[in-house]
Amino acid sequence: MLRTDAVLADPRLAEAVGRLGRPIVKAAVTDAQELARQGLIGPAEVAETALGSLPDSATALRPVLNATGVLLHTNLGRAALSEPARQAVLAAAGATDVEFDLASGERAPRGRSTVRALLARVPAAQAAHVVNNGAAALVLAATALAQGREIVVSRGELVEIGDGFRLPDLLSSTGARLREVGTTNRTTVADYAAAIGSDTGFILKIHPSNFRITGFTGAVGVAELAALGPPVVADIGSGLLEREPLLPDEPDADSWLRAGADLVTASGDKLLGGPQCGLLLGRADAVRALARHPLARALRVDKLTLAALEATLTTPDTPTRRALRAGERELRTRAQRLAGVLSAEGIPARAVSSRAVVGGGGAPGVVLASSALALPEEFAVLLRQGPTPVVGRTADGCCLLDLRTVAPEADDRLAGAVRAAAGERGRCAGTPPQVAVAAHGAGGGRAVARSQTPERPCT
Ligand SMILES: *Cc1c(COP(=O)(O)O)cnc(C)c1O
User: Fold this and answer.
1) Cα of 404 to ligand 1 centre, how many Å?
2) Taking the complete model, does pTM exceed 0.85, yes or no?
């Protein structure tokens, strides 16, 4: 067989080394040589197979199929961008008029079309500003409106958002002082009123987006807080701009502004389904004070984010929304079709019912009925490490691939990934591969189906 160096001398692979770097291309060649050693491809096909399996980009970040059933999985980058948002990122990637007026040839307000799109979606907002993420939106509000002063907030709303980061610590780090009121389970409007004074910067209302307190509870709504006098900053977290009928307990920016909040803060990559960013919406004077604060420059978003956010706002049928609204029957049909195709090839796949969640700090306690492909548990690791990494979840000895978080257009890719994992499993078990995928990636795909994989039911 040709040595690796000799294969890499192929001009097409040499070009790929220039584009993707040597380690990626070399790994693809080594994989193809392994397939040749196993007799699955001919020695002359090594270069071609390696080419076909090369990734599209030079980043080590791998696109994965989110089959976890968690719509917004923080470890998987939260919301997947819509096709228009991806196109917008590409369009904005070079030089762009993000801060330039082509008609006058003068400087123009940065991201003005994105702000216009935001205001069109949230009629109750007079102005809007975009920062790096939801945490940055809170930091900017606390710094600009309450540094050296007090933020009055309920003890029931002091959230840890994840990875050990806690909103009270974040807020205190700005030099604002937290004035905690009420108790974990109950806070009344009198608690807030008693704490308000000349030192009050603002009242903060935080949506408890990743936990629920039930039982003997009480919290004060935005409308009552707004009547107390000081400005009200309200953190909705999820980024819903208008009411979502399927999530009646999730607040939305428009409703909380209408209820009297001066500012609403939110994340862009949660239920809004856009890029990571933080939204600040509300009264013109408050938004202007934030946008002109020196710290705003450090929290500024780049043109790619502005482009993706604008496209998300103008074409709101995002993968997140589609996953949320997918019908149970449609999900079941997809699971049954996939299970049928794969089991006919001898792969022990079954369609089962499943339970998906929003995740990522949204709609705690809400369960979305779903359907999944159930495979033996050892598929989980094989799928994660396959050519198209798939992340599922394991339960009751099964690897479950939940279809609510997989776009219907990706079903065939999902099936391909399961086939590849089944082939790998056959090899691992020391038995001849039942299904072998000799090459993967655009143009190089080739599946060799053999008969009868022994059934290993997982329950
Ligand atoms: C998620 C969340 C945040 C933090 O937003 P990031 O975009 O992750 O920085 C803040 N507040 C609430 C209520 C949240 O749900």
Assistant:
1) 23
2) yes
